[in-house]
Amino acid sequence: MRSRGALHRNPQIWNAEMPAVDEASSAADETLQLSCVLARFGPLQARSGEVNLLNQSGGRARRIGLVRVATLFKRTLRRLRLRALAPFSASAAAYLQAEFVPRSAGRDLQIDRSIAIPLPWANEAETRRVRIAAVVHLFYDELAIEIRRYLESVEESVDVYVSTGNQHQAELIRTAFNGWRNGSIEVRVVPNIGRDIAPKLVAFKDVYSHYEYVILLHGKRSTHASVLAPWRQFTLESLLGSKNVVTSIVTIFDNQPSIGIVAAQHFEPVRRWLGWGSNFARSQILAHRMGFNLDPRRPLDFPSGSMFWARTAALKPLLDLDLRYQDFDPEKGQQDGTLAHAVEHLFFFACEHAGYDWVKTGQPELYESTPAIDRLEEPRDLSRWLCANGYRLTAPYGKREAWSESRAVSGPSGEFFLRVRQRALGVTDGKADLGVRVAVGIPLAGPDPIQMTDAAAAVIHALDHVGLAGHRVLVGSEHRAEAAGQSGCIRYIEQTQSQSFAEKHNELMSQAFAGGATHYIALAPGVIPHRGAIEAMLTASAANFHRALVEGVPVEAKHPAPYEPLCFELPDVRADCLLIPRPAFEVLEGFDIQLSADIMGIDLGWRARARGFVLKACPTALFDDGKLQPQCSDAQALLTSVQFLLRKWRGPTWLSEHVKGLAVRLGLELPDVLAESVPAEWLPYSSFESTFVQENSC
């Protein structure tokens, strides 16, 4: 006899033609056949009258009438035939979706209760030493540093398993975790299919049995709606926001062995879209394979965003499905309705089917419009809370809740934005010991003692402010005339007028790192950094494990850098006020000397991204560029530099044609520059849509 799993796997059995039903046959025989079919294939979604029919005697069934029974039997066989198709067939899904159209609404906001964390008593509770795994999918490898920053909150030993799309990305992720001392790190290359769900259930299926707890994460970018942009950071802040948050979650698991999943209370802008949507059909098919039914009439709950903590045993029903990559939909940018979305809706159901309960937690200060986040003052309050507020999605006779339509919420609280921005900038309550040696390079374009004095004095003042007195200021000058009021830490280096700004900075940078510097700050002539600018840039660098190029922000800018407002990510950088860590110089070897001062930062930033560094703006590192010298006033030199950049990075044809057309309009003749193209795997890290790139080509 074949098992149910074998039946699901065998298309010849499932696609076999069902025998025709003779409506004149005996009602008792039909009832018997129906009973046998239901017994063989498991529970179906049936109305109460149909279920009662199976429990009645043959005599009672005869009195119902031949037509009624025949109709019922044909409907049931039709459902079985559709269910008997390949487990994820479009026809079966379409039938189920049409047969049961669930409402798109979640649990009532007033009674969807969650536990406030951190727990005030968590640090005093006795916890066991357990093995924890972090299973992370990163389609965007540049988010590896952010994920690592949050995983630092786990005090227990945690082994990190990361999946990504190709070998180049895998190498960058391994580099981002260099120095990870809290456990092991393993990176696997997986197909770009099934979003983050397929890697969790397929690529790392062998991992879960070796650990008691797991945290599931991924580099979520919700670009289809601006209101959802902070979703990733909100979930990470909720699950890994501090050591106290992590300790509280582990304490919940330790104190309540019945808990299988701890997830974050929903990101408020998402709540209005909670529900089955177009995912019910595939979720129902998966539920049948696991051995239970879904009731579309009941409110739904699930860990939205598919990031949560779990007891690994609670994931066993999903892992036992033995899903394969070919079961998942090809990637087409779908926003709903895929097998991956269906699985996301079933995490709590699978947890219950494995014999566990689930809870949601929340930090009240991160929410604007979510009530019912309950504070538990002592350990015994936890079991009481679970008895009073626990909810089971699969309980057939459990308490039923009303649907709730949630109003639109524009975003999380101001406290959330403050926390995430401070984390990105490395801002802490105390003054951190940065443990760095800094050199600041200022290549001058001509003899200007006043300019030299102002810039050098401002840099020395900023270094003194952060306690870095005695660190070097390297001034590249075409003349050895020393400015009045100089400090002993200023070193003048003679440079020639024929050298480009890229060459001058490379020379100063080489001497700085040869002299023991850990960071080099490139300043354009005339830039005056504010008192706290250098400290702010160094702090932001430390927050990114010194794997970031950090750009200062001008007080007044005609075209401000288009940085992301929450984590301050940049598509490229400028060299007006830029911090470069030593590891970046060692692999990048400075600026490309073929590029003008306006363009050289763009190329450096793209090469840095392609080698595993991130680009960050630092809004607290202000500088005044009022005396900034024009660094590239020659239009032909600028256009030639842009043309070189386009060829080096295989830029879009439309931009190349635009540059040529602009040269013609200006009466210029662009030379046919030669540029060696960067490796193909680097190309995705360029950003020719950047405002700054287009600005310098117009």
Give, in spatial order, the strands making up the sheet with the most strands. 5-4-3-6-8-7-9-2-10
Q: How far is the N terminus from the C terminus?
A: 74 Å
What class do helices, strands and sheet pairing give? alpha/beta
Large-scale geometry: elongated
Multimer state:
single chain
Gyration radius, to the nearest Å? Answer: 31 Å
What's the average pLDDT?
80
Poorly predicted runs are 1-64, 77-90, 481-486, 628-632
Per DSSP E runs of 2 or more residues, the count of β-strands stands at 19
The helicity comes to: 25-40%
Q: Please give the count of helices.
A: 26
Query: Strand percentage, roughly?
Result: 5-15%
Largest sheet: 9 strands, mixed
SSE blueprint:
Blueprint: H1 4-9, H2 11-14, H3 27-41, H4 48-54, H5 58-64, H6 66-83, H7 90-99, E1 106-107, E2 114-116, E3 132-137, H8 144-151, E4 158-164, H9 167-176, E5 185-189, H10 197-203, E6 213-218, H11 231-240, H12 243-255, E7 259-264, H13 280-290, E8 308-311, H14 316-319, H15 339-344, H16 347-353, E9 357-362, E10 373-374, H17 380-389, E11 403-404, H18 414-425, E12 438-443, H19 449-465, E13 472-477, E14 490-494, H20 501-514, E15 519-523, E16 528-529, H21 533-543, E17 548-554, E18 577-581, H22 582-588, H23 600-610, E19 614-624, H24 635-648, H25 653-665, H26 691-695
Parallel strand pairs: 2-9, 2-10, 3-4, 3-6, 4-5, 7-9, 12-13, 12-15, 13-14, 17-19
Antiparallel strand pairs: 1-11, 6-8, 7-8, 15-18, 16-19, 17-18
Helix pairs in contact: 3-5, 3-6, 7-13, 24-25
